[in-house]
Each structure stands twice: as C-alpha cells, then as structure tokens.
Amino acid sequence: MSTFLGLLKLFWIFLKISIVTFGGGYAMMPMIFQEMTANNYLTEDQLFQFVGIAESTPGPFAINIATFAGFETFGFLGAVVATLAVVIPSFLIILFIAAISENFIHHPIVKSVLNVIKPAIIGFILAAAIRVTVKATIGSWQEFDISWQAIVIFTTMIVLSSVFNKKFPPIVLILLSGLMGLGLYLL
Fold it and tell me: How large a percentage of the chain has pLDDT more than 70?
C-alpha cells in the first residue's frame, strides 16, 4: 500500500472514530484498540503503552493517542493526519452548536438523544477502564501474570485520592505513581 493510501486510510479510521464516539477519548478507546489492531497498525501492547504516555502528557487524551498512533504508523505526517482526523469532527460540531446553541440545547429531541447516549458513554468508559486495569495489574487473561507492583501503585493512588480527597493535585499523584513505578519495577 502506498504511503498516500495508508495515510488516507489512517485519516478515515480516526475520522470515523471521532464522528461516532461521544464522551471523549476514554469512550474512543475500545474503537481505537479494535481499529488499530484489526488493520495491523499497532499491537495491543503498543496501544497500552500509548495509553500510559497519553495519560501522562498534557492535552486531551483522544488527541494524544491519535498523535502517538499516527506517529508510530507513518511518522510525523501520520501524527498530523491522525490528529487532524480526530479533531475535525469535534471542531465542526462545536462550531455548529455554538452558532445555534440557545435553541439547540433546550430542544426536547436533543435532550432525549443526549439522555439515551449517556449510558453508552459510561459503558465505553467503564470498558476502557476495566481493560486498562486488567492489563496493568494481571497482564492478560490468557497469561494471568499478576504484577504486584502495579497493584501496589494502583491501590496507593486509590487510597491517596479517596482518603485525602482534593489534598493532592493530580500532577502530584501522577508524579508519585511514576516514582513508585520506577522504584518498584527496578527492585
């Protein structure tokens, strides 16, 4: 496949994901995983690594993951193409909604549609959270390789964020989990 056709296919994949997914980057994760692995652009392990990178870098998760996936498949041009594809639908939709927002948001049909979409968004986010948690703590269901380090870090972050609610800024928790990861995985 030529580079141009590959970039066009990559653009179409991320455009399609961005158009049909509501709820942000986490809701997009199941589709991104399916499309990237089905088209042999990335392995599941690479995607999990990108999730970790996208989580710890500034910016919207969906844009970060698209940029990383695009860069890994087609270099700088792939990063630009995938990023544009994931941004364009949201940008156009927000632009349209801003133009007609007052009448649009309060319309009964729009309220009904949003009420129907909310459970699906929650389902996508939960599926992504479960998938990442399982991968981070036990590897995969087939291997069932429990990572005690990941469980310790995960449990510590939950306790710190629950017990000391709002006392630790998210950046402190991210840095602390990174330091714990370095320490525990180097043991």
Answer: 87
136 vs 117: CA distance, rounded Å: 29
**Helix (H/G/I), strand (E/B), else coil: 50:** helix
- Token representation of residue 3: 């580079």
| Side-chain-side CA neighbours of residue 167 (13 Å) | 8
User: How does DSSP classify residue 140?
Assistant: -
Residues in the chain: 187
Tell me the Cα Rg of the chain.
19
Cα 151 from Cα 146, distance rounded (Å) = 8
Task: Show the tokens assigned to 102.
Answer: 């007052």
Place of tokens 């390789």: 145
Secondary structure (H, E, C), 73-125: HHHHHHHHHHHHHHHHHHHHHHHHHHHHHHHHHCCHHHHHHHHHHHHHHHHHH
Q: pLDDT of 161-171, one tens digit each?
A: 777 776 777 77
Largest CA distance in the chain: 59
pLDDT tens, residue by residue, 99-119: 777 677 777 887 777 777 777
Give the list of residues 6+ apart from residue 128 with CB closer than 8 angstroms, or none.
Answer: 26, 27, 29, 30
Q: How many Cα atoms are found within 13 Å in the side-chain-facing hemisphere of 118? A: 6
Tell how far CA 137 is from the center of its chain: 18
